[in-house]
Amino acid sequence: MTVHDMKHADSDSARLEAVGGRLSRVDGPAKITGAAHYAVEQQLEGLTHAVLVGATIAAGKVTAIDSRAAQTAPGVLAVLTPDTIMELNGASDWLGNPPTQATYSPLVREVTFSGQHIAAVVAETFEQAVAAAALVKVWYDETPAIVDLSDRRAGDGIPIDAMTKEWGDAEAAFAEAPVRICTAYNTPREFQAAMEPHGLIARWQGDELTIWEPSQWLDGMARTYAEWFGVPFENVRLVSPYIGGGFGSKALALAHSAVAAAAAKMLNRPVKLVLNRPQNFTSYGGRAATRQTVAIGADREGRIQSIVHRGVNETAVDGMWVEPLGSVTSIMYATPNFSSKQNVVRVNTVVPGAKRAPGENPSAFGIECAIDELAHELGIDPLEMRLINYAEQDPHAKKPWSTRQLREAFAAGAEAFGWAKRSPAPRSMRDGHQLIGWGVAAGTYPVRRAYGEAVVKILADGSVEVESSSIDMGQGTYTILAQTAAETLGVPVEQVSVKLGDSHFARAGVTGGSRLAGVMTGAVHKAAGQALDELIGLALSDPASPFHGLQANTLHVRDGRIASPRGEGPELSIAAFMRAVGRDHIEARGDTVPANFTPEQRYNNYTTIATAIPHTEGDYSRHSWCAHFVEVHVDEDFGTVRVSRVVSALDSGRLYNPKLAESQWKGGIIMGIGQALLEEGIVDRRHGRIVNGNLADYMLPTNADIPDIRTISVGIPDPHSSALGGKGVGELGIVGVAPAIANAVFHATGKRVRDLPITLEKLI
Amino acid sequence: MNDQVTTSPTTLSLHLTINGRDHALEIEPRVTLLDALRDRLHLTGTKKGCDQGQCGACTVHVDGERVLACLTLAAQVEGRSITTIEGLADQDGTLNAVQAAFLEQDAFQCGYCTPGQIMSAVACIREGHAGSDEEIREYMAGNLCRCGAYPHIVAAVRQAAQELRS
Predict the structure, then answer these.
(1) Mutate which: A26, A27, A31, vs B, most B CBs within 10 A
(2) Are A166 and A304 in contact (CB under 8 A)?
């Protein structure tokens, strides 16, 4: 698409159904009437129910399992243990690396974290399975666990050289800088806590496996199942029509998934296994706990001379997770000298995983608090401080930004918030007993790109179907792909139906890293363009076509009707045209995959992240940007913090549907409020157990915690980031929220809290 | 662990009135209303988020009042009038004012907490607790939404309350 085309498309954005229009979500009616059936709600004949038994220690060996009482309990069909579950093959990881072990057991004897799956009970009803699971007795030989990063035996960890980023001589420049700050920032273990629990239904029919499971990555998970069970990829069908939230947690087939699929095979009956809420805190990883130190040296005018950054994140005893803590540190501000290094430390936890903006989120907490501290040290307004050090190009990649509307975001946000009226001194604004603080912070997220595919069908009745194995977990995929197909083909959006969430549709890579909208609008735009070309070609060349013989080079389609551009000759609906030429459908499979890709590269493109395109590939560095302005009220006596106002200005490039993008931004901001003030996985130091693994004790923001939030789009179409000019939306909103709140709390109270969450005991 | 729990199963014959229709069930007394709806009657619009009374996703109406279906045994509600999200719109499909407002205000993303939010919102308005945004926030605080649709939920409840008053 040319820049000219893009402008044309934007000028159309007043039309609701066009790309850029504020169309209400097309899957909305099903969701508000209870008609949307989520994965584990499929009703199957002969369905059985599995319930897991988890380890009550964090480290040690299972010495014995007594399952006799469970086996004879009413309705019980099987008790699976490490001794009785079928052996699976090891599977490759999400990068496509081959398995490290030839075999795999999702039930274990060697325990490395509390809650790890030891056994599973399968019964005719859910109630029977729950009751029988409570009868399984397990004996352990417990060994001391390393409970978290603060455990003395945890050590300094393993250096991750790939995370090292350095230029200039950062340590020397810091030592010579006239103004220096050096501070440490900690973030706790956090959880995704999607409202829909993880779970699945598995059914075998011969060598064919069907899995109904909430999934952010059907093709990747299907690959894992195929490898576990040694069946061809095509034999595995994953179905995930709606996903009740993922936030990074639902992209991989996990141990409980393997248990259910193995049980279904062993019993030759469909098995449903849904993790109960506490198991959702131990069966897959949340965001790793992190520690960072940020040292900034500056001159007296506030210009940064050097940044020295060191980071640590926790990982599992038997699994590796790196939370890239230098990702924002290395690009947000211009500096001639820079050094960032990172270690990971093994503790007895389930392997940490992706939670909204993995890396960027804690990274921004460090650098965006530190820059605020430096501003205070120098007596410079924190917004001015950020403009003084504005990076005109990517300081790390040394490439120009594709687009960076961050200056515009600061200006628009400050104007709407009223930043100019801020009284600079801490504790200088109050309302009775309430101290008032205003804080600002910036955020960013890279534009992750990938190659995509889609099928677009024009049917005999003039309706259009779009098919893709990508998914909608609330971001609005159904809606924006309908808008893309409608606009490209020139048909009303009501005539377009989008089918997602079935791995037998056109393949798709992972829905994560805010990449899906850019990838899939590009693929659908291309496939729909091919379908349109075929329609017009047929109309001009088929002897039965009413347009045959018309001396036109092309035709256009508007509102579902075909006509010549100059209005001569007939005008008829697509349905009437299809009847005239006797076609029942036109189908186009379009993809953006390089033409020279082999079938294996294509397979890897959808089932691994090995072919992801770096955001600094070619001539540009591509990122989304945002600036958050936050007001807090802090009770002077009790230290309670309430966020009373948020204004955020965000650059996600061109928005495919502003109504839905605003919802995602606000959702990220609200998750950021939870991160700043409420969320913290608390580990029992004796048994290494998450003690608040439920939705009341792991506190999520409630409606009563959230004020009005204003979002302002400052993005412009970015032709280097995606086919239609958009950048990432979903992760951006959360990045920078926690530091903006921490900075506001400092402004209100004069106390700098560097350990999240900011709870009242840290303020009084 | 009390082995009696699993060794002496009994079933109850129940008649539940759900969305104006009678349903006959043969279930164990320990079956919750939530599991009876979802697993036995295939009314899956009512969602299971926590099964511990913490999230509100399973909110239904019993005799017009909001109730958590996960903390209610099916046997407790025999003879009472149960309304779920599937029974909220009119017979002809006309949406309840709250449902329509949720769609218009984009008061949801993933949709999983949404049936519970809507059932709560209908009751919140009926209870007279939708007089201000502050009041709506407090009386809707028992329904968690991890996608973070709260400001839009408040806007939807405010809009529906105004429509229902006028």
Answers:
(1) A31
(2) no
**Which residues of chain B are within 8 Å of residue A664 when distances are taken between CB atoms?**
109
Query: Does the pLDDT at position A3 exceed 60?
Result: no
Residue A528 and residue A584 in one domain: yes
What CATH code is carried by the domain that includes residue A81?
3.30.365.10
Q: Mutating which of A195, A473, A511 best tests the B interface, going by the most B Cβ atoms within 10 A? A: A195
Q: For A95-132, what is each residue's pLDDT tens digit?
A: 999 999 999 999 999 999 999 999 999 999 999 999 99
pTM of the model: 0.97
Containing domain of residue B82, as a range? 9-87
Out of B87, B109, B136, pick the residue that ends a domain: B87
State the count of interchain CB pairs (< 8 A) between A and B: 194
- Select the residue of A74, A197, A473 nearest B110 (Cβ to Cβ): A473
**Residue A611: pLDDT above 90?**
no
CATH code for the domain of B145: 1.10.150.120
Residue A64 and residue A694 in contact, taking contact as beta carbons nearer than 8 Å: no
User: Which residue of chain B has the CA closest to A198?
Assistant: B49
Which pair of structure tokens corresponds to residue B23?
Answer: 């349903």
Domain boundary among B61, B87, B113: B87
Query: In a 10 Å sphere around its CB, with 0-12 CB exposed, 13-18 middle and 19+ buried, how is residue A82 labelled?
Result: middle
Q: State which of A219, A250, A281 marks the end of a domain.
A: A281
Chain B, nearest residue to A657 by Cα: B106
Which CATH number fits the domain that encloses residue B67? 3.10.20.30
Contacts (Cβ under 8 Å, ≥6 apart) of A663: A476, B106, B109, B147, B149, B152
Residues A736, A668: contact at Cβ < 8 Å?
Answer: no
* Residues in a beta bridge with A521: none
CA nearest to A214, candidates A228, A200, A227: A200
In DSSP notation, A454-486 reads: EEEEEETTS-EEEE-S---SSS-HHHHHHHHHH
pLDDT over 90 percentage in chain A: 95
Give me the interface pTM, i.e. the ipTM. Answer: 0.96
Pair A346, A463 in one domain: no
Cβ(A737)–Cβ(A673) under 8 Å?
Answer: yes
Judging contacts by C-beta atoms under 8 Å, the chain B residues touching residue A123 are none
* Residues counted in chain B: 166
Burial of A687 per CB tally in 10 Å (0-12, 13-18, 19+): middle
Total number of domains in chain B = 2
